Every structure is written in structure tokens, then in C-alpha cells.
């Protein structure tokens, strides 16, 4: 019974630390480079922490809560984005975790693309439906989704690959 309690506590602490780190990185980035975490083209460096779901299941609630808290304290983020952005992060984290064993060149590429896919579709639709409202819906959606995907791709894939490889070479990988 004590072992289960220890594991539960460890999981809770890991998730809380990841959430806190997500918020701290996001907040610091916003202070140093204003509007880079909340604009139409976002380069949220904190999103690289989605890579941690490949090593720790506790990262799923960690990045989700981190995203929610970041959106709560960010200026310019509307309530709808708090719900939809957090939902996109949660769905991406769950799918990335479940796909973590499918690898290409020893890298879980499909997992690294999950934040790109979910955020571009969900946030792209949110922006087009509620904020931009282009004359041609599908074209407007593709533009919004593409801008969101660009930021997510740079951080989660281009940054995620070296981050994953770095973490894979450490003791962190033994905690799957």
C-alpha cells in the first residue's frame, strides 16, 4: 500500500512541477518578447514541454493545467481561448502519449505532431469563427490554422526533436 501512495504522490508532484514550469516559461517569454505567446502566430516555448508526455504520464495533466494557468494570467487571451486552447493541449497530450511507441528514425514523430494538429484545427476554427470571420470561411480557416500550425511546428517538432533526443540520453527515460 505504501508503494502505491508513493507513486501517486510522485505523479502529483511531477504534474505540478511541469505545470509550474510551463507557466514560468510562458510568463517569462511574454515579459521578454511581448505578444509571442498570445498572438495569431504564437511561438510558445513552453509548448516544448509537451514532449515530456513521451516520458511521464503525469505530463498530460501538467501541460494541460500549465496551459490553462498561462491563459488565465495572459493579457489578451479571451475566456473562450482558455477553454479551447486548454482542450487542444489536453487532446494533443493524450494522443501524443498513446502514440509514443510509434517511431520513425527512433523518434516518435507522430507524437511530436499532435500539438501542431490539435492546436491548428481547434484554435484555427476558434479564430475564424469567433474573431476574424473572413468572407470565405474555408480560406480564412486555412490561413488561421496555418499560422497556428507554424508556431506549433517550430516549437514542438523542430524544437521537440532535439529536446526528445536530449531527454532520451538521460536518466529521465527510465521513468516511463
How is this structure best described in words?
There is one protein chain. This protein is mainly alpha-helical and 176 residues long. Helices cover 69% and strands 0% of the residues. The protein contains six helices and no strands.
Q: Hey, roughly how much beta strand do the residues contain?
A: under 5%
- Class by SSE composition: mainly alpha
Largest sheet: none
What's the N-to-C terminus distance? 21 Å
* Poorly predicted tracts of residues: none
Rg over C-alpha atoms, rounded to the nearest angstrom = 16 Å
Classify the helix fraction into a percent range.
55-70%
Shape: globular
Total strands: 0
Order of helices and strands: HHHHHH
Q: Mean pLDDT, rounded to whole units?
A: 89
Number of helices: 6
SSE order and pairing:
Elements (H helix, E strand, L loop, with lengths): L1 H31 L26 H15 L5 H20 L10 H24 L4 H22 L1 H9 L8
Short description:
It is built from six helices and no strands. With 176 residues, the protein is mostly helical.
Tag the structure with descriptive keywords:
single chain, mainly alpha, globular, 176 residues
Amino acid at each position: 500500500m505504501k508503494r502505491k501512495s508513493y507513486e501517486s504522490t510522485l505523479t502529483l508532484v511531477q504534474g505540478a512541477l511541469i505545470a509550474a514550469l510551463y507557466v514560468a516559461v510562458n510568463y517569462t517569454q511574454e515579459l521578454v518578447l511581448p505578444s509571442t505567446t498570445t498572438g495569431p502566430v504564437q511561438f510558445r516555448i513552453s509548448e516544448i514541454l509537451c514532449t515530456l508526455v513521451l516520458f511521464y504520464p503525469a505530463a498530460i495533466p501538467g501541460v494541460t493545467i500549465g496551459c490553462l494557468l498561462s491563459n488565465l494570467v495572459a493579457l489578451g487571451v479571451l475566456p473562450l481561448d482558455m477553454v479551447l486552447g486548454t482542450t487542444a493541449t489536453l487532446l494533443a497530450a493524450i494522443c501524443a502519449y498513446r502514440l509514443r511507441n510509434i517511431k520513425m528514425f527512433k523518434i516518435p514523430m507522430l507524437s511530436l505532431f499532435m500539438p501542431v494538429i490539435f492546436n491548428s484545427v481547434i484554435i484555427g476554427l476558434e479564430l475564424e469563427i469567433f474573431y476574424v470571420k473572413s468572407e470565405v470561411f474555408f480560406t480564412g480557416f486555412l490561413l488561421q490554422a496555418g499560422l497556428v500550425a507554424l508556431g506549433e511546428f517550430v516549437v514542438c517538432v523542430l524544437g521537440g526533436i532535439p529536446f526528445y533526443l536530449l531527454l532520451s540520453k538521460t536518466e529521465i527515460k527510465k521513468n516511463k
